[in-house]
Amino acid sequence: MFTTTRENSRDHQSAMSRTICTFLLRISISVLLLSDHSLTIGQPGIIKMPDNAVIVDNGRVGLILPPRSRESDKAFTEALKELKPSLLLIYDADTLLKDTPQIFLSKSVADTIIPMEIVFIENCVKVLPELDGKRSTLLDFGVFDIDGRRYRYKTIQPPDPSDGHIKMMFYFMKDDYSNSLYELGIIFKKEYFDFVEPMIISIAASFEFLEP
Length: 212
Hints:
Elements: E1 2-4, H1 16-24, H2 29-32, E2 40-41, E3 47-49, E4 53-56, E5 61-64, E6 70-71, H3 74-83, E7 87-92, E8 102-115, H4 116-125, E9 130-131, E10 134-135, E11 137-146, E12 149-157, E13 165-172, E14 177-189, H5 193-206, E15 208-209
Antiparallel strand pairs: 1-8, 2-3, 3-4, 4-5, 5-15, 6-7, 7-8, 8-14, 9-10, 11-12, 12-13, 13-14
């Protein structure tokens, strides 16, 4: 069974430089040429780089966020982390939409190694968030391949549909066989679906495991 955990270990800090170099090689040449930009330290465990490339979870994973994204309000983020310790980051997509979508990344850890095929169905598709005794509604889920890489996702409507928000999540596991599961998601107004869907797919395509 997957449970949430907060990892603040410094065990991987000594390898951070190598990790950053590995990730930068996967970013476009235009980013590599931005020699006048220096790395900046944001929240603990997060290193922000040019063009919104970020490395999280003590150097274990990296991803690229939309150009106009920004970190969510610090007090709001910390409050969410108290409620959900598995939360690694939360950003406002800042896409000039009136109701800005929010991007999040979280990590769950199980006691034993479980194949991704089992975890996706049993722990992702079948497990839906609840609020005040009301269960979220599963709108869609599936698996698809792009450029030889497999993506698994689900879309849900929160327990209270009155505000019109829906949530789309992608799931990642190193080598599809691990005790760690990453959930990348975005919360947005459902009328923005056609705009937001390619955005989250693009972010999912940038997600990389940085450790050997």
